[in-house]
Specification:
The chain contains 9 helices and 12 strands. By secondary structure, it is an alpha/beta fold. Strand 11 and strand 12 (228-233) form a beta hairpin. Bound molecules: adenosine-5'-triphosphate. Residues 21, 26, 44, 46-52 line the site of adenosine-5'-triphosphate. One of its GO terms (molecular function) is ATP binding.
Length: 251
């Protein structure tokens, strides 16, 4: 992509994205670009189209028109599975961890199969998996809970575990739908810390309603309204935008 005279490669380039449900455009000619190592947050009133944008990117919903390029690959023609393999991970609002398994086991079963170079040397693979599980557990603040059954974790710890189950697959882009909903204040602070920690190797696209959390994490914010961008930029600019105050923040 050429902007001015500068050649720029975005991790994610969404252009003219539209989806129509029986003539109703839930997402309407939407364009935005996410950089490598960026935390981008989508905010906006109920029904603005935020979840639908994530559904389109992960292939759950088919676009009516427009383009979603991820590292130059067109995602709109790919299946959800191919999109995961291309490096896009998505966490839904409700955790989908296995309650009767331990933290270790939940992470272990999420480790991508068939990606190892060790082939039949199972013991080497086991060591690599264990090392990776431990590293991810540390990132998600659960290193000392590796052998705890997931059902005994707090709500926040369960959310972190699910983020860990995505991280172990090493997606380049992580999409999170309201990750701090239902969390305590201290868990929210730690989640912000977690996201800042992982962006050295990932970009993150988050839907969120908690404005304090948005301020803590967002490099840039998109305000969505009726399927279109109402405002975009740094949180400081966006939160003082009269249009945003009128349709969203003022309520
Ligand atoms: N599969 C579908 N069929 C028909 N309409 C849909 C479908 N999915 C979403 N919509 C509609 O598209 C609009 C946008 O919904 P969406 O869930 O993306 O909004 P949102 O911004 O995520 O809202 P919230 O903050 O309440 O989660 C809503 O009017 C919704 O009813």
């Amino acid at each position: 992509m050429v902007i001015g005279d500068v050649q720029k490669d975005f991790l994610l380039a969404v252009e003219g994205l539209t989806v129509s449900f029986d003539g109703f455009k839930a997402v309407n000619d939407l364009s935005f670009y996410v950089d490598e190592n960026e935390i981008r947050v989508i905010i906006g009133p109920n029904g603005a189209g935020k979840t639908t944008v994530l559904d389109l990117i992960c292939g759950k919903t088919e676009a009516t028109s427009g383009s979603i390029k991820f590292r130059g690959q067109e995602l709109t023609h790919m299946t959800p599975n191919q999109i995961v393999l291309a490096g896009v991970g998505r966490k839904f609002q409700t955790p989908s961890i296995y309650d009767d398994l331990t933290v270790f086991e939940n992470l272990e079963i999420s480790y991508p199969r068939g990606r190892t170079v060790f082939g039949a040397l199972t013991f080497k693979r086991d060591a690599a998996v264990r090392e990776r599980v431990e590293a991810v557990a540390e990132t998600i603040f659960l290193k000392d809970r590796l052998h705890t059954s997931a059902e005994l974790l707090s709500h926040g710890q369960k959310q972190w575990l699910e983020i860990g189950m995505l991280l172990i697959q090493e997606p380049a882009l992580l999409m999170l739908d309201e990750p701090v909903a239902g969390m305590s204040v201290s868990e929210r602070v730690k989640t912000a810390e977690l996201l800042h920690g992982i962006i050295k190797n990932h970009s993150v696209l988050v839907i969120e309603h908690d404005m304090k959390f948005v301020e803590d994490i967002a490099h840039k914010v998109i305000v969505l309204h009726q399927g279109r961008i109402l405002s975009e930029g740094k949180m400081d600019k966006v939160k003082n935008d009269p249009k945003v105050i009128e349709v969203y923040l003022g309520h």
